[in-house]
Every structure is written in C-alpha cells, then in structure tokens.
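for the record, two folds in this file. i put them one after another cuz i was lazy. first one right below, seq on top, structure tokens after. the second one comes after a little note so u can tell where it starts
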Amino acid sequence: MSFRKYLEDEISKTVAGIHALSNSNEYLTIDLHCHDKNSDVPDEQIGRILNVPETWATTEEVVNRLKNSGTDVITITNHNNARSCYDLQKNGFDTLIGGEFSCIVPDFGIGIHVLAYGFSLEQEKILNEKKSDLYSFLKYTKSENIPTIWAHPLFYYSTSGHPPIEFFEKLSIVFERFEGINGQRNDWQNFLTIKWVQALTKEKIIEYAKKFDLVPEEYCIEPYQKVLTGGSDCHMGIFAGKTGTKLFVQNLTQKIKQGESKSKLVLQAIRDKQMVPYGASNENERGVTSFLDYFCQIAINMEDPGLLRMLLHKGDANEKLLSFFLSNGFAELKKHRHTMRFLKAFHSSLQGKQIGLIDNLFVSKEYRPIAKMISLVANVKDPDSKFLSNAIYEIYQQFSKIFYGRLKSKSETLLENKFHNISTVEEFISAIEIPASIRSYLGEDSCANNKRIDIKTFLDGLSFPLLAQAILYGAFFASTKVLSGSRTLQRQLSTYTGSQYPKERVLWFSDTFDDKNGVSKSLRLILEEIQRRDLPIDIAICSNTVAKEKNLVVFRPNLEFAVPFYQDQLMRIPDLLEIHNYFHEHEYTKIISSTEGFMGLASLLIKNAFNVPSYAFLHTDWIMFFRKSLKMDIHLVNRSRRLLRAYYHAYDGLFVLNSDHKTWLSSNEMEIGKNKICQIGHWTPSFFTPEKNDRQNLFGLPENSKIMLYVGRVSKEKGVHDLKHIYDTVKKSHPDARLVIVGKGPEEKTLKESIPDLIHLGWANYHMLPKIYSSADILLLPSLFDTFGRVVIEAMSCGLPVAAYNTMGPKDIIDNGINGILEDTKESLSSAVIKFFSAPDLIIKMKEQAIKRSKDYSADKTFDTILQFIETVC
C-alpha cells in the first residue's frame, strides 16, 4: 500500500471514529476557516511589498459557494479582521463573527495563525493589540470566553528553521481546539495533527505544564479536553465548504423553532467543544487550482505598487528584488493579449462562467482542445479537486505540444540560416548572447548585430504557449513547495507520535544511458546493481530510444537537438510537469543527479519543490573538457566554472570519483565544504576475470606479439592522437609491438591514416572485453581528464597492467611501477612501456599486482558508501 493510500484510509477511519463518539443527529455544519478579499494584508512579506491581497474573491462569491456546499452557518475568517462578517450582519445575514489572527509565540520567535469567534469590534481591536504575544492573546480570549482554534498547526512563519518538538509540547498546554483537517493542507499534515492531538492525555498536559512552568487554567476553560475542528482554508472561494466542522446542538430542532439563531447555537457549541471535523482527502490538488486562480487574479487585478514603496517597505534586499521582478513580470504579462485572454477565461471557468462566443470564434485550431477543456471546467457544477488538477495538467500538455512543435521548427530554421557555419563555443555564445538593450526585444535595434538571433522574431509565436506553460507549472510548483516546506518537521513528528512516514526512495537523474560513453556504461552497471540488490532506487532518463525496465524510468523528450559546436551528444529537453507528477505519485524522498544537463536542472527544480535532500554525481572533468575539447579561452572557462559552482552549491552533497576533484571542489575556486563531498569508485562485473590468451583469433597476431591496447571512445579528449607517438617510439625498440584499438569515435579516420598497421576492432560486446584484455600485454590510457578510468579497473581485473598519464582518476588507482605505469608526458610514457616490454619478470609481477589492486573496488563497497552518505548528509 502506498503511503498516500495509507494516510487516506487512516484519516477516514479516524474521522469516522470521532463521528461515532456522538449519537446525536442534530448538528449544524460550518466552514470555520475561509477567506475573501478582506484578507487584504498578507502575512508573506512579498505580498505586502507588492501591495496585493490574498484574494480578490468577493464576499458574495464566497457566501454562494458556502451555501452551494451545504453549510448551515456562514462565517468568513479574514486575516486580523472581521469586516466581511460585520457587513453580512448589517445586511441581515445570520453570521458567526470570526477572524484569523497572526500571532507571535515570543519565546520561540515563530508566527502562527489563531482562529477566534464571537468577538465584538472593540474586542477585535484588543485582539490585534495582543497578537504580538500569543500567551497574552490567549489569556484575554479565555477571560472574554472567546473560543479559539490553532489553525493548521504544522504551518508557521519562522526565519530560523522549523520549530522544535518543545514548541508543540508547550502550545498543547495553551490551546483547547486544533484544526485537524485543513482543506489546503495535505493528508500527511492533517494526519499528524490528528494523531498528535489525540495523544494529548491529561497526564501529558500535566507533565508539559510542569516542564514549562505554565498554569493551563490561565489559558483554557477545560485544559485537559482537546478537540479537533475542520475548515477549508479556501482563499479563492472554489473549495469553500468542502471541508468544515459539524457542531452538535442538543434539541437543535426545538431551539430553532423557538427562534434561536443558528450562529449563536454554533458559537455555544464551539465553546462547549461539541464538534467533529469533516472533509475529503487532499494531496496538492486544491493547492494547484488555488495558486493558478491566484496567479490569474494577480495578472487581472494587480496594480503597479510603485518603486519607492517597494524600496522603502520592510523586508530584506532579496525580497525586494524578487518583488521588483514579479511586479515587472506581471506588468508585461498584462500587455500580452493572448495570455491575458487565457487567464481571464480560466478564472471565469473556475467561477462557473463560460467562455464568450466571440472568444471561441477567435480560437485557432491548435488552441481548440484548450478552449474545450476550459469550457468543460465551467460546465461542471461542483468539480472536485482531482478533476480540476487533472484539467490543468491536460491544458499544460496542450500548450507544451504547441510550444515545442513551434520551437522545433524555429530551431531547424536557425540551424540552417544562423548556426550552419558555427564551429566554436565563442561563435555560438555570440549568436545567442542575450542583449542588454531592451530595444532589441522590441525590434527597434534587432539588426544592430547581424550575427545575433533576432529575439523579437524568434519569440514570435512562442511567447504565449511558453508563458501559459510557465504559469501552469508554477501553480504545481508553488503548491508543492508550500506543502513540502515542513517535510523535515513532519518526519520528526511522525517519529515523535509513532506514526508511519514515507519509505526512503531515490530517483537518480541522468541525461545519458544508451550513449557510447563511460558515463552510460557506469549507469548501466549501477542499474544492474540496483536490480540485484532490489534497492529502492530508480534511474530516470530522457530518451526516445530506450525502453523502460525495472528501476529504469524513461521520460520521452519534448525536444531533441545537438549544439553546432559539439554534435557528438544530443541534448534532450524533458517535460518538467511529467517528472514533477511522477516524483509525487511514486513518493520519492531523495534525489541523485548524474548530469549537469537538462535532467540535472529538472532535478534541482524537483528538489526545491519537494524540499528533499539531493546529491550530484560528478562524472566529467568539465574544466579540462572546456579547455581541450571545446577550445574555450580562459574567460569562457571561468564563466563556465562559476555556473558549475552555483549548480553544485544547490545540492546537499557531491559524489566524486577522484581525489583531485575532491580537492578542487573544496578549494577557493568552488568553496564546497569537504564534509559535503564523498569520494567513491567504480567496479567491474563479476565476469571480468583473467581468461586464456587468444590474440591469434582476436587480433590475427602471433602469440609472441607485444600487444598495446586502447579501449574507449576514439576522440580528441581521450588523447588518442598521442597513441601514434607512443606506438612509433615503442616499435623502434620492439618491432613486434602492435597497437589494437577497441571503440569508435570521430577521430577513427584520422587515426587509421596516421597508423597504417593499426588493428581497429570497433565497438566490442561488453562480455567480450575480458577476453580482449586478457589477450593484450598493456593497456594505454592517454586521456588527460578521465575522472576515474573505468577501463583501468576492467583491465586490472583481467590481469592487464595499465600505462596512463599521472592525472586524476588513474593516479588514485595505479601504483607506479607496481601494478601499472604513471607518467607525465607521452615521451616518458613511451620510455616506460619500452622498459616494461624489456622486463619479463616485471610483466608477471605487474599482472599479479593489477589483479590484487582491482579487488579494492567492488559494487558492495561503493553502494554501501553511497547509501551511508545520503543517509547522513542532508
């Protein structure tokens, strides 16, 4: 059973059990927690800087939703005021006065929300004066018999991390009522609240009171009787009344006949704690819809907050900078006619209003499925949260299809017209460099640099589907981030209450799996080890060709392309929302990323949305790659290094394959703490063992030939052009020496032309490698930036010594002169190989020591290290 299903069942059983405690069928229903436009001063600093309310939903809209949901009594609990309730009373509505007050727990420096009911306008003023000290606030409400509820106890405001367990112990003394089912919180938060409150026995309250030196009776009328309530916490009006509280009133029918108002009966029932919560389960579906509708409302209604207002407002520099970008972003959005039409149409559909006939007539064929879905949302009288979130996902997919279809067409045109002659990184960056002049985006200066892309022309037809996608995904991201913000605290409370929490499960991201390179081979072995051990780890890749299998998740790319200056590796852009939803549905708790590409960026987005520990796996020496393969100058290398530094700093820990990378990452250049870096190694499958020499059949050479072997990608970055010098030099002393190459790559033709007697086998079946290694005398590894050198371990496992440059990975594995050769130049490496072939005893000794050294690298050791590191470093 999944964790979500377990929570859903447990909440249903718990609520059913609470309901069974009351034999009365006489009750009134009320949503004790909902908002309208009078929640106009948000608690979030950015909202206050931008001068936006928490919603533009009118009182009338919220009241209609509450009535349609079947609630018997109306209350609207706006932040720090009851204006809507007073207005309703003036207009003759039987209304329960209520409000949600933002209180500070002074000894912890944490802000919480407290619902209060039945107060007067004068009492409201005093409550707002006292809200800066929760204890003073609650002493006052007790003295005035104003019932209070601790709203969503696991949601709080703090600048110093999540609160300690002592925070909940102390506040359990001073509250009598707790919001157990909040319609905007997920099942885990609601379940933990219910379990915690139900465990608050009289003995525990007495124990906590002694611990914190508090007198419970100063804050509570009945301090040892704790009860649960429910409320939708709806700000948009969409789900108002879907979650609430049943208030049991003895002789209800008779009292109503006698003319007693329902609001007064409800208030007394709250005071008497004759209540039980009700409401459906929720993950993030309601949050997604609510955030999307809020984005729509901001775009429609927000006004310019003013630069001076933002600069002079309370808040730190980062909050003001973000507010500045947001205000400008929404201002530009207002100018985008198509996007605004879409946002207005979707907002209207959530209010049950159809798209106008004129709008439908002007919808192009591409957008008709979107219009149809919006129309469907508007037609559903009482849509549930899952239906709405699924509708949003389908609309996102339609926009994605349109956007990437157009982007592909435009990219192909660029490749033909702009990029066809580009061969260097500098030329590529010059073409795509984002101009500093705003006039370039407006088309007024688009021809200033003919080498650059015309931004305005390129974005034509892309901006609407791109903006729409961003807003739709933003709703999923924001909802998930809010609900996952207290994940660490939730796990602590799960342990504290003896409750179940999600089982550890890792999603391992990669951009490569079926490519002909060492990273792909390593990931295939990692997958096989995961499958062999039956570990709770899945590898996620983006590919159009790989089939999914056990522990291998395959996302199909939205777009595939190769950059002009490096055609060897395809770039694949995944569907972010598809990955987001998959991560959520399969309840992953950790992330490992083996890529700095698009899947790596996706992993960081998921990490920030779900608030889970994440770890990067550094497979490539990027600095050497930038210098040697991409021929970057020092300025571009430094720019790229800074990007890498920002990227790696975003993770909680890093895996490296050699000591050089560990030193580099912890140096002043990268500034990552050594405790966040874990050095591990690769390993070879069990079939890599010495086999009978078979060079006659494999290479067509006599048994007494001296065989130098190269295995790997035939490319410049692998140093293959040094092989000619080494081969020519060795042959002068040992004419019977021959060079065998196993692998393919862009330098094959050049190498064959420069070495006429080269034996080139191409790609070999992986299971054939042990026989090939066992039939050679020495493996040459002329690469200068192999981060580990998997072929080193493969060769050593088969008793084949390795001659490599004294760099990175190889130097951590090879003991020079004992189990292999390490040299700094091709000249010294050539001389060392000549000496090797001239000393039969040394050859025998090195073969024995190579096998012995290879046994230090095993799958068990590597995986034990990985699992221990991700358990302790987060």
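(here's the note) second protein begins now
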Amino acid sequence: MGNSQGDRVILVAVALWVIPVALFGQAGVWLADQIAVITGAPRRWWDAPLGALVPCGLAALGVGALLPVARRPRASAVLRAWLLACVLAAVFAPLRALPASWSQPAMLLQAGLSLALAVLLARVTAAPPLSERAQGGAGALLVALGLGLASALPWLRLGALGSLLDTALAALAGVGFGALMGIFLSRWLFRPLLESGEPLGLTAGLAAGVALLLVAGGFGVAGGQVLLMLCLPPLGLAAVALARPNCGALPPAALLGVAAAAALALVDADELSLLLGLGDVPQVALGAALQSLLLGLALSGVLLAVWRRVQSLRAAPAAAALGLALVGAGEAYAGGQPGLYGDRLFVILREQPDLQPSSAPREARIAGVYGALTETAERTQADLRAELDRRGVAYTPYYLVNALEVSSDDPWLRAELAGRPEVERVLDAPLLRPLPEPAPQAAGGDPALEGPPWNITSIGADRVWRELGVTGAGIVVGHSDSGVDAGHPALGDGYRGRGGEDDYSWLDPWSGTASPVDRGGHGTHTLGTALGRGGVGVAPGAEWIGCVVLERNLGSPPRYLDCLQFMLAPYPRAGDPFRDGEPARAPHVLNNSWGCPPEEGCDAGALRPAVEALRAAGIFVVAAAGNEGPECSSVASPIAIYDATVAVGAVDRAGEAGSFSSRGPVTADGSGRVKPDIAAPGVDVVSAWPGGGYEAADGTSAASPHVAGTVALMWSANPALVGDIERTERILLETARRPPEAPVSCGAPGNVYGAGLLDAYAAVQAALAAP
C-alpha cells in the first residue's frame, strides 16, 4: 500500500473513531445530567466537567495513537490539528460546572476564553503565507456573513431570542468562537496543508469539519454543545473556500461566528431540558440543528465548487448573496417568534407578616389574613416600587409572599436590588420562550370505567358514598396545575364557574385564557382523581376552581404565587389581586400536584410564607411529595417540604411505595423533617384526560388528589371541621393504615410512607364522630 493511500486510511480510521466518540460522548454527558435532574439523583459540581473531559481524552487518544505512523505531511498536518482541537475542547470543559441557569456568566466566560485562546494561537504561529495576493477580500467577507445568516435560517424560524443581554452575550460568544476557529483553521490546518503541497479542497474541508465538531463539543451551555456539534461541521467546506488562496482568517471567522451566535441566541439553554418533554424545546432545537446541518452542507458544497470562478467578479456576487440572506432571514424571523423573551427576577423582601393562629370563624380568618398580607406588602414595597417606576422597569407585586417579579434579568440591577435594606434575596424567575407551534392537544384514549377503579376502592371512598352518604357536597377544591378540561363529562358539572361565570373561578397567568383549558392533560387527570364524577374521583359531589401553574410542564415562583394568591382571595381575570380579591370565594382545600425545584427558580424557602398564610387562613394545603425516589432526602422541593403542607407519597395496588416516590427526611431546608406525611395510590391510576377520555398515570401527582378529595369528604361530612387544619390533619394521619411491612428506610418508616396508607372511609367515620 502506498504512502498516500495508507495515510488516507489512517485519516478515515481516526475520523471514524473521533466523530462518534465526540458526538455521542458529549450528548451522553448532557443526557446523564438530565436524568439526574428528573430523578433527583445527587449531582456534584465536577460531574459535568469531568464527563466532558472523557470524550476529549478518548478522541485525543485515538488521534495520538496514529499520529506517529502518518508518513505524508498532509496526514500529519490534519492529525496535529485534530489533536489541538481536542485540547481546545478540553480547555472549555471546566465551564460545564456552571448550572444551566447561569447561562449569562457562562456565555461571557466562553467569549473571553475564546478570544484569549485566539490571541494565543495567533501569537505562537507565524503569519500566513502571502505569496498569493488576496482576491476579493471584501467580497469573501460579505459572502461569509451571508452564508452564516443563510445557515441560521432554521434557527430564526424555529427559535426565539431571550433578553437583550442574553442576545448580546450570545453574539459575543459567537464572535469569540468564530475568532478562535478562524485563527485555528487558517494557521493550524489550512496553512500547514498548503505548505505540504496539498491544495485546499475537499480533504481540507472535511478535516475542518471534524475539527469544528471537536471544539464545538466543549463550547455552549448545557446541551448547547450538541446543537453546535450538529450544525457547525458542514461549514468546514465553506471555510476552505473562503480561506483560499492565502489562508485568510477573517472570512471563516465571520462565517462561523454568525452561525454559532444564531444557535446560542435562539435557544435557551435552560429549556434544553427533558422536564419539558421530548416534544418541546429539545425536539424543536434538534430539528433546527439538523435543518441547519443540511442547509450548511448544501450551501458549503456549492460555494466550494464555484468560489474560484466567481472570485474574479469581486464584491458583486458577495453583496447579492448577503442581500438574499438578509431578505430570507427577515422573512424567516417575521414568520417565527419575534421579540425578546428573557428571564425575570423574583425579589423577596425581608418583612413577612407574622400570622398568629386564630379561633375566629374561617371566613373572618381568611379576610384577616388577606388584609394583613396586602397591608404589609403595600407598606414595605412602596420605596422599591417607586424606584422601579422611576427607572421605567416593569414589575408585578405579590402579597402572599412579600415579593415582586421584576421584568428584567439585568445582572447590575439584580446586584443593586439585592443590596437594598428591605430586600432579603433575589431569585430567578424563568420565562419560557415560545414554540413555533402550540404543543399538541392531549387526548385520552381509554373509555370510561364501568365502576370505581382500584385506587378509589382501596381507600374506601366508594364505601363513603354508599354507606355514609357523603360525596363532598358543599366543599370547593382549588386546583393549580396544567389546566383543566372543563368539558370533560367527569368534571364539567363540578366547575363552580359553569355557565360562563369564569371570573373568580379560573385564572391562567401564563396565557390569559378566559375559561378552563388543558393542553397537556396532567391537570385534568389529577383533578379527576380528586372529584371526578362517574366513579373516578374521591369526592364527586365537591366543586372546583382552577388555575394554571404549569406551562409545558414547567413553572416559576411568580406563576406559583399567582395561583396560590388566587386561591386565598379569588379575583376577576382583569382585576387587581391586591384590591379586587374576595376572600369569601376562597376554596376549602387545595391540591398541588407540582414542585418548584431550583431549575424553576425556587430555593428551599421561596414559597414557605405562602403556605403558612394559607394554613393560618384555614385552607387545607395538599402537595405531591415528588417523583425523585428512591433516594433518601429526595422530598426536596417546595411546597412539599414545608410543615404547613401535607405531602403525599405514592403506593401501588399492593400498598408498596412506588420506586419513584420521593423519600425524607427533608434536608433541603436543614429541618430534618419527616416527609411525606401520608401515602396514597399513585401507580397505574386511571382518571380523566382531555377530550372526554381516560388514561392511567403514575406519580405522586396522582397520589396527592386522593388526600385533597378525602379532606373534602371529611369537611362535607362534618362542617364543624371546616378550617380546622390541626384536627383534620390529625384525623387523617391517625386513621392511616400501616403499610404491608413498613420497612425502616431513610431513618424511619415515615420517610417512605408518612403516617401510613390513606384510609378515606376511616377518616370520614372519625370526622363524623368528631365534636
């Protein structure tokens, strides 16, 4: 075998090793992190950086192993460039320690590191050969910009921008990446190939594509690396054409900088999360990356084939290409999601009302709590509101937690707010960027059951209806979730706002819908378990009001507060919660089949004042314990962690804890509190689903509405208990059945099952006997 053919085999073999190792290795690091987020598995700060270094090292090992056997200068030049690309990717790996919510600092650090590396690479190499006079320099730059914009068309059509600062930092990071790769390709790949006598053609373009794949694997935030690894390598062919004939660095830098900036700016790294589901941002971003890959490959191939012929025409074709790209980008963006969708700030004030227990009637207690909360917020927020008004910064005040949502993610404003004497701390308030198309409407595929399902009979709810004649009549359940399909036959008759009276009974702080709707299905399912007619619900005689806290399966502290405030004092859709709230319309019991983890902006104490105020008002608060088990201390997110909340774990038909059901003790707030408080059916629970059908689901989300429904039965059976949270909770826990074996796990059996398995029949009997 000749040297030329042997070197070609070496390059192909190395490429076949490097490409899958880099691509699937970096994708695997992101996937492992996502699984840890979903399951609640502990994540150490060094896990992601160390994981990112592994594919860099494996790729470098493959390149280095065959570098000594390369005979021709061409193969040696390519392998040395790939080895350096592995090193550059490894240099960026430590930045993976930053959480996804720190995307702005990460972008800034990546931009600075890229520019520093570009300067370093430029200083340690000689200037490129100038034996051939540059032809059409301005035209090459314009074509580079136009091609970069053209390759970004899928991102412009499918993505959406964040805040102005997000966009500026993404552009800066793109500039840094472009500068680094322009210098790298021109001086460490193209120039050595020219000096070896190799013309800059297809081989150089493919080698540049592999180098781009390697370096992109270390760049970006969260899963952004995977997107860059897909869309940038095809542009290696265009970079070759633009660098000819004198290895100029500026045109390739401009091309790659624009392409990288588009991918970084138009996808929020926070939203590259499997918490949203595969059909949400991950699918949209992957589709945009693949379309960009194909578009870049086609445009680059054409440019590589014709560039020598059109260079002599100077800037005319370049200007035309740029003009077409700008027109196409304008059309794509106009048809996309124009506007800015940056995250916001959640500013929590120091003073929170001290609400003492009261023996007053429930209606008076709710009104008193509402008055105390609103007065405190109006008084303590006055100076801060005035300052934000003076600056023209929009905000939304809250009273259930004395806080404000500030419509800015300016880090300087954040630091200034955090330094004010009345402010305790400042948290993130994530805002989801819009999708190119609404999420598909969920629809139930199973028919109605012929009788109560196993979960209803296992807690004895059907015996309560049949033997005790109690169905929950006279009780209103407040439900905060993804929404509700009020047209479902199991739920329509229970809606308090039926007949078009949606004010005071429905709130959608995400989309502003005027009447109940549920695109995802989660809320319809959980509410159906609480009070659905036809045998699926625990308290079929109760009524409900609803609020949307989850948009595409994610929330944020302000959206959770919107709904919790609405439950304390409902108000009209166009009303002011401070002035138009009517405590007399408050529901009796709240089901909350959600949690607010750090990924959504909450810290351990973010919503504690809210649930304590609701309890002081005589409103019973039930919450799902979480689906991050079986690890101990996985009951870790508000509001399940609080003492004022009854947290519910999940069990199956045999009464054994679901493997996913979160366990205690609570360590997130340092309390060591035993949680969950009680366990209920949460495996294979059949309930209502949008469109009139039914579906089975697992989760503590399916378990908690059993408890909310049981409280509705208890209070309906004995109105003297209404608002008496302490006695009601005591009856619930004392009548709970022991689990099958009640193993001592996570320090105590209660950290798996709480007080035991919910027994609705025994609880209602005890409620009837209560004085």
